[in-house]
Amino acid sequence: xxxxxxxxxxxxxxxxxxxxxxxxxxxxxxxxxxxxxxxxxxxxxxxxxxxxxxxxxxxxxxxxxxxxxxxxxxxxxxxxxxxxxxxxxxxxxxxxxxxxxxxxxxxxxxxxxxxxxxxxxxxxxxxxxxxxxxxxxxxxxxxxxxxxxxxxxxxxxxxxxxxxxxxxxxxxxxxxxxxxxxxxxxxxxxxxxxxxxxxxxxxxx
Length: 205
Known about the structure:
By secondary structure, this protein is of the alpha+beta class.
């Protein structure tokens, strides 16, 4: 809250401006930092960040543009974007899954009756990397999942060099993943989303 808005007695120190004065006109500014779920209209921005982040490393993207639109249409509540001054700088996309472990089908399906969230991708814009944004976004995302009563756990698969990053976020290794993409092999990890009732009572979810 602005200081002057919290202390009305200070307003008298400023002369009242005419209603049509430039100083009285409402300023439309974008929030410096905002977290929100994504929708199909965000798909192109998401894909541009993902393409730059992954193609240079693995030669392919976890999700292609039509798949991004698919998940953001079916389950936008399982995504989270970080915007700075209206520009997307990082995102996570997930979908529901209904088996204990991930399989090849998990790459493209959203199973509405599942209780596990499959985290398909986390990516950060190249200008915002090396700033800890990936860890912050994942923390916010996991807190967001606690507000969804159906969700019991989160699953993801990653290359071995990313295991320490996700371990710091609270994920536990389940073992080698059955899913392969070309020549790439992955480790499967799990995060227990717990304390739903407590979180709803104490977090305003």
